[in-house]
Amino acid sequence: LNPPHKALSGQDKHSFGYTTLQSRLPVIVSKIVDDVYRAYNGLSDSDPLKKEKEQEAKKIIELIGGLRYELQRDKPFRPFTDSREDVEEWNQALAEYYPTSSWYKASWLFSECYLYRRVKEAFALTQHWKDYDPFFEQKQTVFKSSQKAVVSMAVQLTTPVDPKTKKSMLDIKVQDGPESKGTRDAFFEMVQVSLWGNATDLSLLDNPDLAKIEELQRRMLSSGSSNNSSANASPAASTVHVDQVAQDSPEEHASELEKHADKILSNDSELLWSKVKSLRNGRVDIILDNAGFELFVDFVFADYLVRAGFASEVVFHAKRIPWFVSDVMPFDFQWTLDQLHRPTSSTSDNTPPTNFFNPTDPIEQQALQDVGKKWQDYVNNGIWKVTSHEFWTSCYSFYHLPTHPSAQDLFQDMRQSDLWIFKGDLNYRKLVYDCKWPTTTPFTKAIGPLGDGENKAEGVPVVVSFRTCKADVVVGLAEGVEEKMDKVVDNWMVNGEYAVISVSP
Ligand code: F6P
Ligand code: MG
């Protein structure tokens, strides 16, 4: 926990770190209390353990209330008291680096990770709520509101593209081989879809307005076509583009797309393509960010990599504990697949009845079934794997991945991979150690041992980040971009409307 440069901190009143500690986290924490309250009020009278569960829930509410108090009064951090396997490591880090520190004095990254770990503690201390995810309901509601975009993509993926064989994108390998123009165009579109899927995370939306999220998806996905030179290239984004953006006048549409092309402030996707196109049956690791719509588009991207023959194995890394509100846990991963292909019997405790998405058109219903089933088959056949490791929810940045003792099993396994794709803002912050780097710092330098500097670790493959900007750090910008942005847009570094695609080859 010795950052290589000045770390972002809540002490800077003009920073998003300060705003987060001051206004956003207290709201997030209050919502946990509401959720637990609702959950225990909903316990059935016939549940023989109702009383015990109620008592434990009240205890959780008390602990979370205490946590909010400590945060708002900037009280010193205290050690953890539960018995999760990561406790010792957290307590060691607290004792060694932050013995007398508190929320605003510590680095923003540490304070924020500490908060989510403290939330976990409140549940981990119980018997009946140990595995409860207080963010699950929010994740579920927002995913449901993504129905239009999800259905639209599913239909595009399953619509026959070959009139003779009636095969759809899902049935066929990407046409004409990995180096064809179609495969290339589809790649750029996939990248954009996966990138902008990160724009709708829940921790930024204190009060998610579902209509707004839908609108955001519409706009973000319409941007997926901005780099696209071929009308039929996209199995995904162009659907949304055709169905919905068509309502705009051509001028409006053109300017919308131009705006979005400009919104990727540093774009290494050509470099990424040069790496990806040489892969044959490789292994790609996706370090996931958010559940819901973002996870769905991650599936779309992973499906493309497999279909094109670039990857024969995709390893998805999820979080073991509820994290930054919307992050994917292994449960969310399976739950999402379940909602698409609607199994007749549920596979997980909280699975709602079979019709989570309810498009009325049978073609749309079938499309969801087909994509869900295809992706479930990938999982069943070991082509897609979901895994989770304590390291992703530790207080450590990814500089520590190659050397941190408790991450060695993870690192050794990930070295087998050809490509690491880190999704989202928090993963980006952890890649660059959440420091206030000059914006022109090369990405390969800012990611330390995972990049190409002196302290470069052995065996790190191509490192990629798809990130919409939601924190006061961005690197890899050309000279003058920061100044230009400062002149024209307030809060451009944190408002989630700008993005970077960064690659360390
Ligand atoms: O709470 C702050 C933060 O870490 C921001 O960096 C970002 O807004 C959000 O939480 C997480 O975003 P993402 O889901 O993209 O990692
Ligand atoms: Mg997230």
TrEMBL record:
Ranges of biased composition (kind: Low complexity): 222-238
One GO molecular function term of this record is:
inorganic diphosphate phosphatase activity
Q: Enumerate the residue ranges of region (Disordered).
A: 221-259
Give residue spans, biased composition: Basic and acidic residues: 250-259
Question: What Enzyme Commission number(s) appear in the record?
Answer: 3.1.3.-
Any Pfam family: ARMT1-like_dom
Q: Which domain of life is it from?
A: Eukaryota
Keywords (A to Z) from UniProt: Hydrolase, Manganese, Metal-binding
One GO biological process from the UniProt record? Answer: intracellular phosphate ion homeostasis
Q: Which InterPro entries match?
A: ARMT-1-like_metal-bd_sf, ARMT1, ARMT1-like_metal-bd
Q: Which GO terms describe its cellular component?
A: nucleus
Q: Where do the Damage-control phosphatase ARMT1-like metal-binding domain residues begin and end?
A: 20-230, 247-484
Catalyzed reaction equations: beta-D-fructose 6-phosphate = dihydroxyacetone + D-glyceraldehyde 3-phosphate; beta-D-fructose 1-phosphate + H2O = D-fructose + phosphate
Q: What does this protein need as cofactor?
A: Mn(2+); Ni(2+)
- What does the sequence similarity comment in the record state about its family? Belongs to the damage-control phosphatase family. Sugar phosphate phosphatase III subfamily.
Instruction: Return the PANTHER family for the record.
Output: DAMAGE-CONTROL PHOSPHATASE ARMT1
Please describe what this protein does: Metal-dependent phosphatase that shows phosphatase activity against several substrates, including fructose-1-phosphate and fructose-6-phosphate. Its preference for fructose-1-phosphate, a strong glycating agent that causes DNA damage rather than a canonical yeast metabolite, suggests a damage-control function in hexose phosphate metabolism.
Task: List the protein's name.
Answer: Sugar phosphate phosphatase
